[in-house]
Protein backbone atom coordinates (compact mmCIF):
# COMPACT_ATOMS: atom_id res chain seq x y z
CA UNK A 1 0.00 0.00 0.00
CA UNK A 2 1.18 3.55 -0.73
CA UNK A 3 -0.12 4.98 2.55
CA UNK A 4 1.89 3.01 5.09
CA UNK A 5 2.25 3.82 8.78
CA UNK A 6 6.02 4.32 8.41
CA UNK A 7 5.51 6.93 5.67
CA UNK A 8 2.84 8.72 7.69
CA UNK A 9 5.09 8.79 10.76
CA UNK A 10 7.95 10.21 8.69
CA UNK A 11 5.77 12.97 7.22
CA UNK A 12 4.37 13.90 10.62
CA UNK A 13 7.83 13.93 12.20
CA UNK A 14 9.10 16.30 9.50
CA UNK A 15 5.99 18.45 9.96
CA UNK A 16 6.60 18.63 13.72
CA UNK A 17 10.37 19.27 13.57
CA UNK A 18 10.82 21.20 10.32
CA UNK A 19 13.65 19.13 8.82
CA UNK A 20 14.68 15.65 7.77
CA UNK A 21 17.57 15.65 10.24
CA UNK A 22 15.43 16.57 13.25
CA UNK A 23 12.73 14.12 12.18
CA UNK A 24 15.34 11.35 11.94
CA UNK A 25 16.54 12.08 15.48
CA UNK A 26 12.95 12.02 16.75
CA UNK A 27 12.20 8.68 15.07
CA UNK A 28 15.60 7.11 15.80
CA UNK A 29 16.36 6.36 12.14
CA UNK A 30 18.71 7.76 9.51
CA UNK A 31 18.08 11.05 7.72
CA UNK A 32 18.13 9.41 4.24
CA UNK A 33 15.50 6.93 5.42
CA UNK A 34 13.15 9.71 6.49
CA UNK A 35 13.69 11.65 3.26
CA UNK A 36 13.03 8.53 1.17
CA UNK A 37 9.79 7.74 3.01
CA UNK A 38 8.49 11.27 2.38
CA UNK A 39 9.54 11.19 -1.28
CA UNK A 40 7.93 7.78 -1.76
CA UNK A 41 4.60 9.04 -0.40
CA UNK A 42 4.75 12.18 -2.56
CA UNK A 43 5.53 10.10 -5.64
CA UNK A 44 2.83 7.53 -4.95
CA UNK A 45 0.09 10.20 -4.92
CA UNK A 46 1.79 12.77 -7.20
CA UNK A 47 1.60 15.49 -4.53
CA UNK A 48 3.97 17.91 -2.84
CA UNK A 49 3.93 17.76 0.94
CA UNK A 50 6.76 20.20 1.69
CA UNK A 51 8.26 23.27 0.03
CA UNK A 52 12.05 23.21 0.30
CA UNK A 53 13.69 26.47 1.44
CA UNK A 54 17.37 25.74 1.98
CA UNK A 55 17.61 23.42 4.98
CA UNK A 56 14.04 24.19 6.07
CA UNK A 57 10.91 22.39 4.98
CA UNK A 58 7.59 24.24 4.92
CA UNK A 59 4.45 22.11 4.98
CA UNK A 60 2.05 22.64 2.07
CA UNK A 61 -1.68 23.17 2.76
CA UNK A 62 -2.25 19.55 1.72
CA UNK A 63 0.36 18.37 4.21
CA UNK A 64 -1.26 20.37 7.01
CA UNK A 65 -4.59 18.69 6.31
CA UNK A 66 -2.93 15.26 6.19
CA UNK A 67 -1.18 15.92 9.50
CA UNK A 68 -4.44 16.98 11.17
CA UNK A 69 -6.10 13.72 10.10
CA UNK A 70 -3.25 11.30 10.72
CA UNK A 71 -2.08 12.73 14.03
CA UNK A 72 -5.38 11.52 15.51
CA UNK A 73 -4.62 8.06 14.13
CA UNK A 74 -1.16 8.12 15.69
CA UNK A 75 -2.62 9.10 19.06
CA UNK A 76 -4.95 6.08 18.87
CA UNK A 77 -2.03 3.88 17.82
CA UNK A 78 -0.01 5.12 20.79
CA UNK A 79 -2.87 4.29 23.15
CA UNK A 80 -3.17 0.85 21.58
CA UNK A 81 0.54 0.19 21.97
CA UNK A 82 0.38 1.24 25.63
CA UNK A 83 -2.42 -1.24 26.26
CA UNK A 84 -0.71 -4.02 24.34
CA UNK A 85 2.50 -3.41 26.25
CA UNK A 86 0.63 -4.53 29.37
CA UNK A 87 0.00 -7.98 27.87
CA UNK A 88 2.12 -9.80 30.40
CA UNK A 89 0.17 -8.22 33.24
CA UNK A 90 -3.11 -9.72 32.02
CA UNK A 91 -2.84 -13.13 33.62
CA UNK A 92 -6.39 -13.33 34.93
CA UNK A 93 -9.80 -11.75 34.83
CA UNK A 94 -12.98 -12.29 32.90
CA UNK A 95 -14.81 -10.59 30.03
CA UNK A 96 -18.45 -11.23 29.11
CA UNK A 97 -19.23 -10.92 25.41
CA UNK A 98 -22.62 -10.93 23.68
CA UNK A 99 -23.00 -12.08 20.06
CA UNK A 100 -25.92 -11.76 17.70
CA UNK A 101 -24.16 -13.63 14.88
CA UNK A 102 -21.55 -16.31 15.53
CA UNK A 103 -19.35 -14.43 13.07
CA UNK A 104 -17.67 -11.94 13.03
CA UNK A 105 -17.78 -12.03 16.82
CA UNK A 106 -16.02 -15.40 17.08
CA UNK A 107 -13.18 -14.13 14.85
CA UNK A 108 -12.75 -11.14 17.15
CA UNK A 109 -12.78 -13.42 20.17
CA UNK A 110 -10.18 -15.68 18.54
CA UNK A 111 -7.85 -12.70 17.98
CA UNK A 112 -8.37 -11.59 21.57
CA UNK A 113 -7.86 -15.11 22.89
CA UNK A 114 -4.61 -15.58 20.97
CA UNK A 115 -3.15 -12.52 22.68
CA UNK A 116 -4.61 -13.08 26.13
CA UNK A 117 -5.03 -16.84 26.65
CA UNK A 118 -5.36 -16.55 30.43
CA UNK A 119 -8.42 -14.30 30.32
CA UNK A 120 -11.67 -16.18 30.87
CA UNK A 121 -14.30 -15.43 28.21
CA UNK A 122 -18.01 -15.92 28.81
CA UNK A 123 -20.12 -15.75 25.65
CA UNK A 124 -23.87 -15.15 25.40
CA UNK A 125 -25.41 -15.77 21.97
CA UNK A 126 -28.95 -14.68 21.21
CA UNK A 127 -31.28 -12.66 19.07
CA UNK A 128 -30.72 -8.97 18.42
CA UNK A 129 -33.14 -7.88 21.14
CA UNK A 130 -31.69 -10.38 23.65
CA UNK A 131 -28.14 -9.10 23.17
CA UNK A 132 -29.24 -5.45 23.24
CA UNK A 133 -30.93 -6.14 26.57
CA UNK A 134 -27.81 -7.95 27.82
CA UNK A 135 -25.71 -4.82 27.16
CA UNK A 136 -28.23 -2.45 28.75
CA UNK A 137 -28.69 -4.72 31.79
CA UNK A 138 -24.89 -5.20 31.99
CA UNK A 139 -25.10 -8.99 31.73
CA UNK A 140 -22.31 -8.61 29.15
CA UNK A 141 -19.44 -6.12 29.05
CA UNK A 142 -19.30 -5.72 25.28
CA UNK A 143 -21.19 -7.12 22.30
CA UNK A 144 -21.15 -7.50 18.52
CA UNK A 145 -24.37 -6.77 16.60
CA UNK A 146 -25.72 -5.21 13.41
CA UNK A 147 -28.10 -2.25 13.48
CA UNK A 148 -26.89 -0.79 16.77
CA UNK A 149 -28.77 2.51 17.18
CA UNK A 150 -26.86 5.78 17.25
CA UNK A 151 -27.69 6.50 20.87
CA UNK A 152 -25.77 8.43 23.52
CA UNK A 153 -26.09 5.42 25.82
CA UNK A 154 -23.79 3.38 23.57
CA UNK A 155 -20.23 3.43 22.38
CA UNK A 156 -20.08 1.69 19.01
CA UNK A 157 -17.37 1.03 16.42
CA UNK A 158 -17.94 -0.75 13.08
CA UNK A 159 -15.97 -3.97 12.65
CA UNK A 160 -17.21 -5.44 9.35
CA UNK A 161 -19.64 -4.71 6.52
CA UNK A 162 -22.05 -7.41 5.40
CA UNK A 163 -25.49 -7.95 3.91
CA UNK A 164 -28.31 -10.44 4.35
CA UNK A 165 -28.38 -13.26 1.76
CA UNK A 166 -30.74 -16.12 0.98
CA UNK A 167 -29.60 -19.64 1.87
CA UNK A 168 -30.73 -22.99 0.51
CA UNK A 169 -29.62 -26.62 0.33
CA UNK A 170 -26.82 -27.18 -2.27
CA UNK A 171 -29.17 -29.41 -4.30
CA UNK A 172 -31.93 -26.78 -4.36
CA UNK A 173 -32.74 -25.22 -7.76
CA UNK A 174 -31.84 -21.78 -6.33
CA UNK A 175 -28.27 -22.87 -5.55
CA UNK A 176 -27.35 -22.52 -9.23
CA UNK A 177 -28.21 -18.79 -9.16
CA UNK A 178 -25.80 -16.04 -8.12
CA UNK A 179 -28.61 -13.57 -7.50
CA UNK A 180 -32.35 -13.81 -6.87
CA UNK A 181 -35.19 -11.29 -6.62
CA UNK A 182 -37.68 -11.04 -3.79
CA UNK A 183 -40.45 -11.89 -6.27
CA UNK A 184 -38.68 -15.10 -7.31
CA UNK A 185 -38.25 -16.09 -3.67
CA UNK A 186 -42.03 -16.07 -3.25
CA UNK A 187 -42.30 -19.33 -5.22
CA UNK A 188 -40.38 -21.31 -2.58
CA UNK A 189 -41.26 -22.29 1.00
CA UNK A 190 -39.58 -19.62 3.15
CA UNK A 191 -38.00 -19.97 6.58
CA UNK A 192 -38.22 -16.77 8.65
CA UNK A 193 -36.80 -15.73 11.99
CA UNK A 194 -38.94 -14.27 14.76
CA UNK A 195 -39.56 -10.51 14.82
CA UNK A 196 -36.88 -9.77 17.40
CA UNK A 197 -34.23 -10.74 14.82
CA UNK A 198 -32.26 -8.04 12.99
CA UNK A 199 -31.96 -10.44 10.04
CA UNK A 200 -35.72 -10.72 9.79
CA UNK A 201 -36.19 -6.94 9.92
CA UNK A 202 -33.89 -6.57 6.91
CA UNK A 203 -35.78 -9.31 5.02
CA UNK A 204 -39.16 -7.74 5.85
CA UNK A 205 -37.97 -4.35 4.56
CA UNK A 206 -36.78 -5.94 1.30
CA UNK A 207 -40.19 -7.52 0.62
CA UNK A 208 -42.06 -4.33 1.59
CA UNK A 209 -39.86 -2.26 -0.74
CA UNK A 210 -41.37 -4.12 -3.73
CA UNK A 211 -44.88 -4.29 -2.26
CA UNK A 212 -44.76 -8.01 -1.48
CA UNK A 213 -46.16 -9.75 1.56
CA UNK A 214 -44.31 -12.99 2.13
CA UNK A 215 -45.85 -15.73 4.27
CA UNK A 216 -43.27 -18.09 5.79
CA UNK A 217 -43.70 -21.84 5.83
CA UNK A 218 -41.61 -22.08 8.99
CA UNK A 219 -40.60 -19.58 11.70
CA UNK A 220 -37.58 -20.32 13.92
CA UNK A 221 -36.27 -18.33 16.85
CA UNK A 222 -32.53 -19.02 16.47
CA UNK A 223 -29.90 -18.86 13.76
CA UNK A 224 -28.97 -22.48 14.38
CA UNK A 225 -32.61 -23.41 13.83
CA UNK A 226 -32.53 -21.51 10.54
CA UNK A 227 -29.39 -23.31 9.38
CA UNK A 228 -30.76 -26.73 10.34
CA UNK A 229 -34.10 -26.10 8.65
CA UNK A 230 -32.38 -25.15 5.39
CA UNK A 231 -29.84 -28.00 5.65
CA UNK A 232 -32.78 -30.41 5.96
CA UNK A 233 -34.48 -28.95 2.85
CA UNK A 234 -37.41 -27.37 4.68
CA UNK A 235 -37.18 -24.13 2.70
CA UNK A 236 -35.15 -21.07 1.74
CA UNK A 237 -33.85 -19.05 4.68
CA UNK A 238 -31.92 -15.86 5.33
CA UNK A 239 -28.69 -15.07 7.20
CA UNK A 240 -26.04 -12.38 7.36
CA UNK A 241 -23.48 -13.12 4.67
CA UNK A 242 -20.59 -13.64 7.11
CA UNK A 243 -22.79 -14.51 10.08
CA UNK A 244 -21.61 -18.12 10.25
CA UNK A 245 -18.58 -20.11 9.09
CA UNK A 246 -20.82 -23.11 8.43
CA UNK A 247 -20.69 -24.27 4.80
CA UNK A 248 -21.99 -27.86 4.93
CA UNK A 249 -25.36 -28.34 3.24
CA UNK A 250 -25.73 -24.56 2.83
CA UNK A 251 -25.56 -22.45 -0.36
CA UNK A 252 -25.70 -18.64 -0.26
CA UNK A 253 -27.44 -16.52 -2.90
CA UNK A 254 -27.43 -12.70 -3.12
CA UNK A 255 -30.80 -10.93 -3.03
CA UNK A 256 -31.40 -8.17 -5.59
CA UNK A 257 -33.27 -5.98 -3.11
CA UNK A 258 -30.52 -6.25 -0.48
CA UNK A 259 -27.45 -5.08 -2.36
CA UNK A 260 -26.16 -2.58 0.21
CA UNK A 261 -23.86 -3.85 2.93
CA UNK A 262 -24.52 -2.75 6.50
CA UNK A 263 -22.07 -2.40 9.36
CA UNK A 264 -21.77 -4.79 12.24
CA UNK A 265 -20.64 -3.05 15.41
CA UNK A 266 -18.60 -3.72 18.50
CA UNK A 267 -20.52 -1.84 21.19
CA UNK A 268 -20.95 -1.36 24.90
CA UNK A 269 -22.52 1.09 27.30
CA UNK A 270 -20.88 4.49 26.85
CA UNK A 271 -19.58 4.50 30.43
CA UNK A 272 -18.37 0.90 30.36
CA UNK A 273 -14.60 1.06 30.62
CA UNK A 274 -11.83 -1.22 31.76
CA UNK A 275 -8.69 -2.73 30.32
CA UNK A 276 -10.35 -5.86 28.92
CA UNK A 277 -13.17 -3.93 27.23
CA UNK A 278 -10.65 -1.60 25.59
CA UNK A 279 -8.60 -4.55 24.39
CA UNK A 280 -11.64 -6.17 22.81
CA UNK A 281 -12.29 -2.99 20.79
CA UNK A 282 -8.71 -3.31 19.56
CA UNK A 283 -9.36 -6.90 18.44
CA UNK A 284 -10.63 -5.56 15.08
CA UNK A 285 -7.17 -4.39 14.08
CA UNK A 286 -5.57 -7.50 15.59
CA UNK A 287 -7.78 -9.91 13.64
CA UNK A 288 -5.66 -9.95 10.51
CA UNK A 289 -3.87 -13.21 9.90
CA UNK A 290 -0.13 -13.44 9.49
CA UNK A 291 -0.36 -13.33 5.69
CA UNK A 292 -2.42 -10.11 5.83
CA UNK A 293 -5.83 -11.67 5.07
CA UNK A 294 -8.75 -10.27 7.01
CA UNK A 295 -10.33 -13.17 8.87
CA UNK A 296 -13.45 -11.12 9.59
CA UNK A 297 -14.29 -11.05 5.88
CA UNK A 298 -13.49 -14.69 5.22
CA UNK A 299 -16.49 -16.73 4.01
From TrEMBL:
Keyword Transcription set for record: yes
Gene3D superfamilies from the UniProt entry: 3.40.190.290, Winged helix-like DNA-binding domain superfamily/Winged helix DNA-binding domain
**Which keywords does this chain's UniProt record carry?**
DNA-binding, Transcription, Transcription regulation
InterPro entries, A to Z: LysR_HTH_N, LysR_subst-bd, WH-like_DNA-bd_sf, WH_DNA-bd_sf
Q: Where is the HTH lysR-type domain?
A: 3-60
**Family membership noted in the UniProt record:** Belongs to the LysR transcriptional regulatory family.
Function of the protein: NodD regulates the expression of the nodABCFE genes which encode other nodulation proteins. NodD is also a negative regulator of its own expression. Binds flavonoids as inducers.
Which protein, by its recorded name, is this? LysR family transcriptional regulator
Q: Which lineage is the organism of this entry classified under, starting from the top rank?
A: Bacteria, Pseudomonadati, Pseudomonadota, Alphaproteobacteria, Hyphomicrobiales
